Amino acid sequence: ILLLCVSGMRAEPARYSVPEEAERGSFVANIAKDLGLTGEELLARQARLVPEGERQYFQLNQHTGDLVVREQMDREELCGQSEPCLVRFQMLLESPLQSFRAEVRLTDINDHAPVFLNKEIVLKIPESAMPETRFLLESAHDPDVGNNSLQHYNISSNEYFHVYTQQRNDGRRYAELVLDRALDREQQAEIAFSITAVDGGTPPLSGTALIRVVVLDINDNIPVFTRSLYKVSVMENSSQDTIVLVVSASDLDSGTNGEIAYSIFQNSEENLQTFKINPETGQIRLKKPLDYEEKKTYEIDVQATDGGGLSTHCKVEVQVKDVNDNAPEVIITSLTSTLSEAAPPNTVVALFNVRDRDSGDNGRTTCELTGEQPFRITLLAADAYALVTSETLDREQVEEYNVTVRARDEGSPVLSVSKTLLVRLLDVNDNAPTFTQAIYTMVMSENEPAGRSLGRLSATDPDAGENARVRYALVPPPTGTLAAASFVSVDAESGTVRSLRPLDYEKVPAFEVTVRAADGGSPPLSAQAVLRIVVRDENDNAPVLLHPPPDSSAAGELVPRWAPSGYLVAKVVAVDADAGQNAWLSYELAKATEPGLFRVGLHSGEVRTARAVTERDAARQRLIVLVRDRGQPPRSATAALAVALVDDFSDAFHQLGHDPASGQQPQVVEEEMLTTYLIASLCCVSSLFLLSVLVLTVNTLCKARVRAELSPPSPNCYADGDFASDGMGVGGTGTLSPAYRYEMCLTSGSGRSEFQFLRPVLP
C-alpha cells in the first residue's frame, strides 16, 4: 500500500492561478480532467481537498471535478510583498489511497494606490548646492506587486528640480530629487511643488505628497560618512536595545556647522518601528526583537546633518540570521475521531502537515509516534503525513487511544512539539457471550408448585451496547425426545429459571435442557450451556406389598410342629417408589395371635419363629406385619399372614380350612367355600396331570419305533448334586421350608425337556 501511495503521488504539483479577491464560487480549473479522472471516480473514491494551512480557500465539486473559490483571498494579507503568492493544498483519493499536490497562484490586481507616509516633505538645501546634486526623497508605499506596484515618481512643473526614479536590490523603487539650476536664497527662500507616485496597474493608481524646499544659507562643507554602505548581521533572537551598528560621519566645518546629528531617514515605516539611532553617537539599536521568518533583510538610510543644515546619507544593510526559535507545528487537516475496531490495517485515521518557519537545518523536521500503539505514520508528500493503523484493533482490550504525534527539527538545540489525538474505537460484535459455567445444576422439590425460582443463569459478553446485551432462551429438544422444555422456563433478560409445573420424582427424577445465550449484535453471536434439573424426592408414596399380595385377605403359610427357633415361616416383600431415606423400609410385627411365637426381621422382612413350636400353641396363627418407610412424615402398609401349625403336610388343607375355636358364622362360610374351591382345583389339576401322562406315553411309544434300529438308551438319573449349580432353591424367598425340593430324573433319549417323574422328597 505504501508503494501504491508513493506511485500515486505526482512528482510535480498541478499549478493553477486565480486573481485575488475573486468572488466565492469562481471557477479555477477542472482538476479531474487534469488528473484523468471522471466525476464518478471522484465521488466513489471520496475525493477531498486538504489545505496546507489552517483555512480552506478552495472547494472541490465531486460531481464535475471543478475547483472553485470557497472564500475571497487578499494577496497582500496572505503573502505581503512575497512573489509568487501560492496557496498549496493536496487532493486525497481513497481505495486506494492517493495524494496529488496542487498550488494556486494568486495573481495581483491593482487594488492599492501608492501612499506617502508624510503628506508634506521638507528639504533643507543650501544655496550653494551645485546643479545635478541629488537629494533622497521619502518613498511611497504600495502593497501591490509586479506591474501593479509603484513604478515611477513625477513632480509638478518647476524651474529648479526634476525627479529621478531609482530601484533597490529588493525591487522597490525610490525617488531622488535632482537640482537643475543653482538656488538663490535671496531671490527665493522656499520652493514648493508636489510629487506623485504612480503604479503600473490598469488603470494606474497614484498617491501625492507636497515637497517644501527650504533654501539655506551657505555652509561650505557637508558631512561625510566613513563608508557609503554598512553591512551587518544580527541574530534574530537579539534582545531589545541591542547595538546593531555604529555609523560615523565627519564635517570639516567648525562650530555649529561642524556639529553632526544622525537620524534614520523615513523611507519605511517598518524601519522606524524596528530601529532607532542615537543622534549624537550614531549608535543604531533595536527597538523590538527581529524575526527572521517575517523579514530577512533591512535596508536603512541614515542621514547625517550638520548645524548648518547640510546633510549626507549612507545605506545600512542589516542581515537577520536565523536561529532555531520556532518549534515545528503539527496542523491536523483531517481526523477520524471514532474508528471501528474491525478496521483493517493501513486504515487512514488522520491527515496532518508539519511546518517549521525556520530555515535550513532549523526548518527540517521529522515526525514520530510516542509509545507502543497499533498506529504508524506514513509520508504522503513533503511535510504531509497520514496516521494509519498498523495492525488489527480490539476494543475489548483498549477502548480508546491517546495517540501522541511528536515533530522535531534538526536545529541546535532541537525543538519539538507534540500533538495528542484521541481515537475512540467503535464496537463490533466479534465476541460471543460466555456462560460462567458449562453445566448448571439446580434442584427442585417434587410436587413443587409452578412459578418457583430455581436459580439464575449468567453469561457475559465483553462487547458494548447492544452487542453486549445478552438474552437467554431454551434450545428446542430434538424430535422424539422428552419435552423437558415444558418443565421449566428461562427469563430472557435476567436468566432466572422457573418451574412450569409440578414434577413427580418417580417419573422424572432428573432432566437436562440446553440453554442458549445470544447477544444483540448483527448478526447475533451465541453460546450454549447445559442446565441440569434434579428433582428432590418427597415422601409421597407408601410402601407397596409384593408378598403376600395386598389383594388377598391373608396369605397361608405351613409350619411343622417340630419347627425349631429361627425357622423361616415367610418373607414379607415390599417396595417403595420413593428414593433415598424415603424408600428405606423397616418391618415390625404389629399384631399376632401369640406375640412371643414369631418375630420379624427389621430390614429383611423375614418372619421366623422366635422359639420352638410346642403342642400348646394354637394350630392357627394370624400375624399382622407393619411395613414403614423413613420419610417425614413416614408412610406405612400392613401385610396379613395366616400360619397353620401342622404335624405333617397331609392335613394342611384341613388345618387351613377348619378352625374349631372360631365361633363366627361368616368365617365358617368363607372357609367352606375355600374348601370347595380347593377341591375343584385339585380335580382340575389331576385331570390335567392324567392327560399329560397319556400324551407323554403316546409320544414315547411313537419315538420308540424310531429308535428301534438304534442302540437302546441307558437311562440315567441325575442326582441332587448334578444340579447344584443350576437348580433353583425356593426356600429363601418362597413360602415353603428349605427342606422341600424336587428331584427330576431324565433319560438321555427322552428329548430335551420332558418330565419323566416328579415326586416330593421329604426329609
CATH class of the largest domain: Mainly Beta
- What integer is the average pLDDT? 83
**Strand residues, percent:** 35-45%
Q: What number of domains?
A: 6
Strand order of the largest sheet: 1-7-6-3
Number of strands: 53
Instruction: Specify the overall morphology.
Output: rod-shaped
Distance between the termini: 108 Å
Uncertain regions spanning at least 5 consecutive residues: 1-10, 658-666, 711-763
Q: Would you give the CATH topology of the largest domain? A: Immunoglobulin-like
Structural class: mainly beta
Radius of gyration: 63 Å
CATH superfamily of the largest domain: Cadherins
- Helix % is 10-25%
What distinguishing features does this structure have?
Immunoglobulin-like; rod-shaped; 7 helices; four-stranded mixed β-sheet; 763 residues; mainly beta; 6 domains; disordered N terminus
Explain this structure to me?
This protein is mainly β and 763 residues long. It has six domains: 14-107, Immunoglobulin-like; 120-216, Cadherins (Immunoglobulin-like), CATH 2.60.40.60; 224-321, Cadherins (Immunoglobulin-like, Sandwich), CATH 2.60.40.60; 329-426, Immunoglobulin-like (Sandwich); 434-536, Sandwich (Immunoglobulin-like), CATH 2.60.40; 544-646, Immunoglobulin-like. The protein is built from seven helices and 53 strands. β15 (190-199) and β16 (206-216) form a beta hairpin. The two termini are 108 Å apart. Residues 1-10, 658-666 and 711-763 have low confidence and may be disordered. The chain crosses the membrane at residues 674-698. Its main location: membrane. GO terms for molecular function: calcium ion binding.
